[in-house]
Write a structure and sequence with these properties.
Layout (H helix, E strand, L loop, with lengths): L1 H9 L12 H7 L7 H8 L4 H6 L4 H16 L8 H8 L4 H35 L3 H9 L1 H5 L4 H5 L17 H14 L5 H16 L4 H20 L3 H16 L4 H13 L1 H4 L4
């Protein structure tokens, strides 16, 4: 019943998680009244390893792909029905299953709200950050979408981990670094001038010197947007220090490519950078 489902989706509230259940309580914890219980039980059984051997080897991946839709239908008040299944999928041995969850974790966070996200999704998110590049790219592509849903204190904890995205399993994976530059542009709106200068600035300068031109071009926009953000925030000290560093590292670089980088950065946002040049 779609009307009933929408009622639960829009009129529910966050529920605190329960730690341990008896077998009977465990069975009851999967009971809900939004969809036929037999249908939900059939869906939850998709994580049974025996089904992967007898039904479909990629059944767990299909289960992971559909999970946000199931969570939206059940509503956050019935998240307890899916929590164990989600954690099982998040630790699945197949990286394709974990990758599927990584690409949709930001959508699930919107459905569950900040309390359940902080308690149940953040630990999974942290695990994906340390996973294979095939999985990490999923959280990286939607890094801004996920972090903006967290409280400021929790969000700042990830500033220390952004540097780790510069290291990949394959150094030739330049698209990974390009995506990082794109996400950093969006992340400028989530952090203070001090955080931008202390944590995002070193990453931006590293990306500006990347060996791949596509990464460098995005990084030029990142640096110019960074100058704009600091300028608008009236952080004149940070702006001056940033411009001094740009001049020292690129404008006065002994390589022509470094001097060219400085010109390109100035060209992107010349109305903000020109007064400092």
């Amino acid at each position: 019943n779609m009307d009933s489902a929408l009622h639960y989706i829009h009129n529910d509230s966050d529920l605190s998680t329960n730690s341990s259940f008896s077998p009977e309580e465990e069975r009851k914890s999967k009971v809900q009244d939004v969809v036929p219980q037999a249908l939900l039980d059939q869906y939850l059984s998709m994580t049974d390893p025996s089904r992967a051997q007898t039904v479909d080897t990629e059944i767990a991946k299909h289960c992971a792909y559909s999970l946000p839709g199931v969570a939206l239908t059940l509503g956050r008040q019935n998240w307890h029905c899916l929590k164990d299944t989600y954690e099982t999928l998040a630790s699945d041995m197949q990286w394709k299953v974990r990758r599927t969850l990584a690409f949709s974790i930001h959508e699930l966070a919107v459905i569950l709200g900040d309390q359940l996200t902080a308690g149940d999704l953040v630990p999974v998110f942290n695990g994906f950050l340390k996973d294979l590049d095939e999985v990490r790219i999923g959280v990286l592509k939607h890094l801004h979408d996920f972090l903006k849903l967290l409280h400021l204190d929790k969000r700042r904890e990830y500033l220390y981990q952004l540097q780790e995205f510069l290291v990949t399993d394959n150094s030739r994976n330049w698209r990974f670094r390009a995506e990082l530059a794109e996400q950093l542009i969006l992340l400028l709106d989530l952090y203070s001038a001090r955080d931008i200068y202390d944590y995002l600035r070193p990453i931006a300068f590293s990306l500006c010197a990347d060996k791949v031109s596509s990464v460098r071009w995005i990084s030029y926009k990142l640096v110019s947007e960074m100058v704009k953000k600091l300028y608008v925030a009236s952080a004149s000290t940070f702006v001056v220090d940033l411009m001094d560093e740009l001049v020292e590292k690129f404008c006065r670089c002994h390589k022509w490519s470094g001097r060219q980088t400085f010109v390109f950065i100035c060209q992107v946002k010349r109305h903000f950078i020109q007064p400092f040049c």
